[in-house]
TrEMBL record:
<dbReference type="InterPro" id="IPR039429">
    <property type="entry name" value="SHMT-like_dom"/>
</dbReference>
<dbReference type="GO" id="GO:0005737">
    <property type="term" value="C:cytoplasm"/>
</dbReference>
<dbReference type="InterPro" id="IPR049943">
    <property type="entry name" value="Ser_HO-MeTrfase-like"/>
</dbReference>
<dbReference type="GO" id="GO:0019264">
    <property type="term" value="P:glycine biosynthetic process from serine"/>
</dbReference>
<feature type="binding site">
    <location>
        <position position="119"/>
    </location>
    <ligand>
        <name>(6S)-5,6,7,8-tetrahydrofolate</name>
    </ligand>
</feature>
<protein>
    <recommendedName>
        <fullName>Serine hydroxymethyltransferase</fullName>
        <ecNumber>2.1.2.1</ecNumber>
    </recommendedName>
</protein>
<keyword id="KW-0028">Amino-acid biosynthesis</keyword>
<keyword id="KW-0663">Pyridoxal phosphate</keyword>
<comment type="pathway">
    <text>One-carbon metabolism; tetrahydrofolate interconversion.</text>
</comment>
<dbReference type="InterPro" id="IPR001085">
    <property type="entry name" value="Ser_HO-MeTrfase"/>
</dbReference>
<feature type="site" description="Plays an important role in substrate specificity">
    <location>
        <position position="227"/>
    </location>
</feature>
<feature type="modified residue" description="N6-(pyridoxal phosphate)lysine">
    <location>
        <position position="228"/>
    </location>
</feature>
<dbReference type="InterPro" id="IPR019798">
    <property type="entry name" value="Ser_HO-MeTrfase_PLP_BS"/>
</dbReference>
<feature type="domain" description="Serine hydroxymethyltransferase-like">
    <location>
        <begin position="7"/>
        <end position="384"/>
    </location>
</feature>
<feature type="binding site">
    <location>
        <begin position="123"/>
        <end position="125"/>
    </location>
    <ligand>
        <name>(6S)-5,6,7,8-tetrahydrofolate</name>
    </ligand>
</feature>
<dbReference type="InterPro" id="IPR015424">
    <property type="entry name" value="PyrdxlP-dep_Trfase"/>
</dbReference>
<keyword id="KW-0963">Cytoplasm</keyword>
């Protein structure tokens, strides 16, 4: 892949783009929310549709010249409907956060009540953190995971729903390694007459492939990101029943956004098309098998996993029992030096802070895209253990770095 046109006019940006490409080729991307899209998705996102204004929806635009914008958006919608079995899909949200914003804006008034998972327990900023507009415009109460088991504390969720009487309950998480019981949360929402928003940002691809149970048809609203476990390029999506279709569409545009990013919607169309192929099913299954192998192997190395393992694409390691003097930040930094890129993460019952947390989160979507299997994941777990056991030992970092180089060379990305 070259960036010749960029280089002709802007060598500084071309250098950075090539640097990033090389970084991705030569490191192990284990940030659980990241993936590598196909060349086809990259091309679609880099297409002339970036030039096009298409405010409105297919067949009802506020601008002329929308023939191909309409075609592309309709393809994205049709494919998403086929993938998820949703009655209504809006593919215009610029990101998962904007998708959530649209649901709140459509269904809530300022001051209404949101019940969601605490950020340090695996929730997301857009679920009501005080630093996000959601935490400032709405009244937020938060449930937690059981700090003993690491599983969602559904009983606490039910108690809080009864006492707090929320207008909407948010499920779906950023750092939760277990299957979510959508029906159980829906029952609680029904009991207190609240809407239920299931935010599948992380597991969009797993749900599309049927590897994780689907909240579509159960929850009132399902939102997702299109660049995490599904490889459709950066963006967001909202799914709902016909009943709420108009509310959601007008909350996305004109409620919260202007012109849709048509080039990104083209990426979504291509990525959803790829996800409809049988080999995506195999990919999603392998992603989970790889996470399970990674978790088991890390456990063998003495690491403590929140919830004891995983059902999905990520593991959350609590470093406190095994490495009480190493923070998630220390581990993240040493691992990056060795070419393994993941993030320090808060753990349930966090005793440090979000800036210097006690855990690390590691995901397998990107490595699985590169062709890594369970054996490779066991090797990666060995490498992670060597670094975290000796984060200040330069010779260890150097030797792990050369093993990472070999793994990357064996599994090239955009060659
Ligand atoms: C990643 C994520 C989002 C959306 O993130 P964007 O970066 O805005 O796409 C929303 N909810 C959860 C639970 C997430 O993990």
């Amino acid at each position: 892949m070259d960036h010749d046109h960029v280089r002709d006019v802007d060598p500084a940006v071309a250098d950075a783009l090539e640097g990033e490409l090389t970084r991705q080729e030569e490191t192990l991307a284990m940030i659980a929310s990241e993936n590598h899209v196909s060349r086809a998705v990259l091309d679609a996102q880099g297409s002339a549709l970036t030039n096009k204004y298409a405010e409105g929806y297919p067949g009802a635009r506020y601008y002329g010249g929308c023939t191909y914008a309409d075609e592309v958006e309709q393809l994205a919608i049709d494919r998403a409907q086929e993938l998820f079995g949703a009655e209504h899909v809006n593919v215009q949200p610029h990101s998962g956060t904007q998708a959530n914003q649209a649901v709140y804006f459509a269904m809530l008034e300022p001051g209404d009540k949101i019940l969601s998972l605490d950020l340090t327990h695996g929730g997301h900023l857009s679920h009501g953190h005080p630093a996000n507009f959601v935490g400032q415009f709405y009244e937020v109460e938060q449930y937690e995971v059981d700090t003993e088991t690491g599983y969602i504390d559904y009983d606490q969720l039910e108690r809080l729903a009864t006492t707090f009487d929320p207008d909407i309950i948010v499920s779906g998480y950023s750092a939760y390694p277990r299957e979510v019981e959508w029906e159980r949360i829906q029952e609680v929402a029904n009991d207190v007459d609240a809407y239920h928003l299931a935010d599948i940002a992380h597991i969009t691809g797993l749900v599309a492939a049927g590897v994780h149970s689907s909240p579509v048809g159960t929850a009132d609203f399902v939102t997702g990101s299109t660049h995490k476990t599904i490889r459709a390029g950066r963006g967001g999506i909202v799914m709902t029943d016909e009943e709420y279709a108009d509310d959601i569409d007008s909350a996305v545009f004109p409620g919260g956004q202007g012109g849709p990013l048509m080039h990104n919607i083209a990426g979504k169309a291509v990525g959803f098309g790829e996800a409809l192929e049988p080999k995506f099913q195999t990919y999603a299954e392998q992603t989970v098998a790889n996470a399970v192998a990674l978790g088991e192997s890390l456990t063998d190395h003495g690491f403590s996993l929140v919830s004891g393992g995983t059902d999905n694409h990520l593991v959350l390691v609590d470093l406190r029992p095994s490495h009480p003097d190493t923070t998630g930040g220390d581990a993240e930094e040493a691992l990056e030096e060795a070419g393994i890129v993941l993030n320090g993460n808060t753990v349930p019952g966090e005793t440090r802070s979000a800036f210097n947390p006690s855990g690390i989160r590691a995901g397998t979507p990107a490595l699985t895209t590169r062709g890594f299997d369970e054996d490779d994941m066991r090797e990666v777990a060995d490498l992670i253990a060597r670094v975290v056991d000796a984060p200040d030992d330069d010779s260890v970092i150097e030797s792990v770095r050369s093993s990472v180089d070999e793994l990357c060379a064996e599994n090239p990305l955009y060659k």
